[in-house]
Design a protein that fits this description.
The protein is an alpha/beta fold. The protein has one domain: Rossmann fold (3-Layer(aba) Sandwich). The chain is built from seven helices and seven strands. The chain has a seven-stranded mixed sheet with strand order 3-2-1-4-5-6-7, with helices on both faces. Its EC number is 2.1.2.2. This is Phosphoribosylglycinamide formyltransferase. Belongs to the GART family. Pathway: Purine metabolism; IMP biosynthesis via de novo pathway; N(2)-formyl-N(1)-(5-phospho-D-ribosyl)glycinamide from N(1)-(5-phospho-D-ribosyl)glycinamide (10-formyl THF route): step 1/1. One of its GO terms (biological process) is 'de novo' IMP biosynthetic process.
């Protein structure tokens, strides 16, 4: 079995990271998290430490420019030579030089059915729009904001009276499963990122 090496980038609690760590602790799952990076002292780094996975932090405010931050982040990523970079709740837009160096082997999860509701407030925006269905997208990262080619999507119902927190929690549950499945499909060749990016 060919095993895909994953480097995961996070900014927050790391629930998607934990789902990948738990999946990759199964010998039958064809991917392994080899390192976790963050742009902040994220609470989710504790998950990596629990699973004895190396971590690194590259804080944007420590650099004179976004490009300088991106160059250091890319250097840290490339040090591990991962097969796939997974942005799992990583809340910063990557500089173009980072994207071009890594694409199409860099993917992201987004809590909406793209192209609907891109950006940082997708759940709030879906509620404000009054839709009865939203969902989750796993996509290849390109140089736009949530504009990269879609790998897979799954719908999540919006219930009357949903708060942003309630809807987001329901989305996160689906998001974790979808990300684990997407990485599995990439690892076993059911999904070809080069082909998807060329569409």
């Amino acid at each position: 079995m060919t095993v895909l090496s994953l480097l995961v980038l996070i900014s927050g609690g790391g629930s998607n990271l934990r789902a990948l760590l738990e999946a990759s602790s199964d010998a039958e799952y064809p991917a392994r998290v080899i390192a976790v990076g963050s742009d902040t002292d994220a609470a989710g780094l504790a998950h990596a430490e629990e699973f004895e996975i190396s971590t690194f932090t590259v804080v944007p405010t420590s650099f004179a420019s976004r490009e300088a931050w991106g160059a250091e982040l890319l250097e840290q990523i490339e040090r591990w030579s991962p097969d796939l970079v997974v942005c799992a709740g990583f809340m910063r837009i990557l500089p173009p030089a980072v994207v071009s160096a890594l694409t199409p082997r860099i993917i992201n999860t987004h809590p909406a059915l793209l192209p609907a509701f891109p950006g940082a407030h997708a759940v709030r925006d879906a509620l404000a729009a009054g839709v009865d269905t939203t969902g989750v997208t796993v996509h290849v990262i390109d140089e736009g904001v949530d504009t990269g080619p879609v790998i897979v999507q799954r719908s999540v119902p919006v219930y009357p009276g949903d708060t942003e927190h309630e809807l987001h929690e329901r989305i996160k549950s689906v998001e974790r499963d979808l990300l684990v499945q997407a990485v599995l499909d990439i690892a076993n060749g059911a999904v070809d990122l080069e082909e998807i990016a060329a569409r």
